[in-house]
Write a structure and sequence with these properties.
six-stranded mixed sheet; eight-stranded mixed sheet; alpha/beta
């Protein structure tokens, strides 16, 4: 099974203010033409393959509507979203792309991890895309959300380049998760993903998850590499330069 770190979810109190803060650091956000979940607004920064999703929540009730096409997923993530927005924003979960949902479900079952799933189809044929989401029903608040895209990656990259132009000089290289017990968190994530951990760090499709000791229990930083990386912080999330030394 191929797995790739796809994107973190950064929830902010005000989307326009976030776009301004990202822009000052040289990271251009592109508004999403449709609400990823009813009741939300979003924009994304894309590095040519992966991205950072920035979301605001103007209508919480609509996001939790029982008629949501996202099924039980909004209910699963909303407690953590509420917590970070109460504190001024922050990253909640990270999304991992997988190429085989059945194998993923088997892996998580073998790890003793409960799951839930839903599928969403967007657009019209022949350009319609179906996203199948899988998420653990237990585990830490920062737990991964898995997604399988019905369209191949090359086609999605081509479509993004048509919309956005050439990708930027910076690339998403990893995330930092602050937790009280990094070793236990690394072992839990390794069992869910069925990949080895290297102490408090692991690689997911060429991008890293690094665990740091601290009280927050959430994603605290995005790491970037490439030319003109400007460290900054916005709405509870730091952006750092990757140090490969």
């Amino acid at each position: 099974m191929k797995i790739v770190l796809d994107h973190p979810m950064h929830w902010v109190p005000n989307l326009q203010e976030a776009e301004d803060a990202y822009g000052r650091a040289g990271l251009r956000l592109h508004p999403t033409p449709f609400a990823p979940v009813p009741g939300t607004h979003s924009a994304t920064w894309w590095d040519g393959r992966r991205y950072v999703e920035v979301l605001a929540l103007p209508d919480r009730g609509k996001a939790l509507s029982r008629t949501s096409i996202y099924g039980a997923l909004p209910d699963a993530v909303m407690p953590h979203v509420d917590a970070v927005l109460t504190e001024g924003g922050g990253a909640t979960n990270f999304v991992v792309a997988v190429d085989d949902v059945n194998q993923l479900l088997k892996t998580m079952h073998n790890a003793g991890t409960g799951t839930n799933t839903t599928s969403v189809t967007m657009g019209r044929k022949p350009r319609a895309i179906t996203l199948t989401f899988v998420w653990p029903t237990t585990g830490p608040a920062w737990k991964p959300i898995f997604v399988h895209y019905s369209l191949p990656e090359w086609m999605r990259r081509f479509a993004e380049r048509l919309k956005r132009g050439a990708p930027p000089q910076q690339t998403l290289s990893g995330l930092v998760v602050e937790v009280p017990n990094p070793a236990d968190s690394a072992r839990w994530l390794a069992s869910v993903l069925d990949i080895p951990s290297q102490g408090w760090r692991m690689e997911i499709g060429g991008r890293s998850i690094s665990f740091h000791k601290g009280p927050t229990g959430r994603i605290t930083a995005v790491r970037l590499e490439g030319r003109d990386v400007t460290p900054f912080e916005d709405a509870g999330l730091r952006f750092e330069r990757e140090d490969r030394k």
